[in-house]
Amino acid sequence: MEIGSKAPEMLGHDENGKEIRLSDFKGKKLVLYFYPKDLTSGCTTQACNLRDNYAELKKQGYAVVGVSVNDEKSHKKFIEKHDLPFPLIADTEQKLVEEFGVWGEKSMYGRKYFGTFRTTFIINEEGIITRIMQPKEIKVKEHAQQILGK
């Protein structure tokens, strides 16, 4: 996916097994953020920053949806523990991370493994990707402010 691409209609299923579609957000800008893992420090900081600024994001016309390859049970725990007001897609089969090109080889402490690259896609009211925030530019402590351009 790149800027100017139309986002796919079927996004996946949330923490309750509910189908999430692009058309659910018609007339809103969608913050579709991909993150590596529930309940880890960086991902928790990012989610809580979005939670703490959720009212402002909504006021500016944004809806927020998180995506990771964790399952629904893990997402429920993450949402409950941190009182997250937005859905999390359980992309356990890695369809969406592959489609958006955010799945690949990573390395930590010399160990190589496959995982999700922290990436945020801003999708406009017509379902077109207008902005892509790459892993190196995302600051988890001020992600909402980056989205809002503050």
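Second entry:
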Amino acid sequence: MDSNAFSPHGANRKLGSKPVTLQDVATAAGVSISTVSRVLDERLPPSRSKAAERVRQVAQELGYRRDIMASSLRRGGTGTLGVLVPRLSDMVMALLYEAIVRAAEKQGYFTIVATCGDDPAQEKQAVESLLDRRVDGLILATSRLGDKLPAELRQQQIPHALALRTDGISPSAIGDDEQGGYLATRHLIDLGHRDIGLIAGPNFTSGARDRRLGFQRAMREAGLTIRDEWIRESGFGIESGETEGLALLTPAHRPSAIFAINDDLAIGVMAAAHRVGLTIGQDLSLVGYNDIPLVARLPVPLSSVHIPLDHVASLALEQLLSSPGGEAAIRRVMPSLIPRGSSAPFKR
């Protein structure tokens, strides 16, 4: 195997030859190095001049390839972004990270992911590790309400953006979670349900807080009673959904419908319903949130609120690259409700 196969400087190298440089292309094309650099810079709009066409033709004939690392070093960066998520076992976070990778590649950036398990101490340690690797910026999907980290990043003017969660100040790209919670609850109300429970997730994230606010707005707008015992705070995982689902479904007087603030919680509710002998879509209506690919393929397909993660990722990257000072607008992506078999008209 060629010893340069995994070298950053091996990308421009042909077997048995030296790397093709900008000077080589400039000499062969009869233009200056600066002209070659501008023509071959993928971040700039492509020139259609005869000289530019000549440069591209010569570069292709010589086998020139842009040295991304050298280019990054010239502009004072590494061309690398750090992405921090709570855990990659959470499908939403895994899908978000993949969406960020796709968006970053289009801008010429490589991404590194780290996880912190929703632990503030691990979050700070992971950020420090990413910064030690000289990333050019950070995208964080880990922000907790009251978290000091975004403020520290702003104070130190470290380029960053928050995704799916926000502290209300740092540049952020999120779903409109209050509207999403409203859509989920309004859907159940429109189906005739009046006794509606909420599995609310943890109280430390903006997403859980806002989806709960949307639930409350829909219930109050419809003049329905919000029963405190039918609002269950929880973790984010399937196990939490099953535990809190059992707490809602075991008593004789139970809700006829449940809104779970993410799809994993809703899947846990499905398991709880099965354990107590209830059929989803008949005895109990259920709506989740995020619309991960799995939920449309369940034995009873899950109604869910869809958030376009590719759009969130693109906005987060845009916020990061356009707001290096650390403060910018909070950009919200509109959700949409996807009704499926898990939610049905109330049967008296």
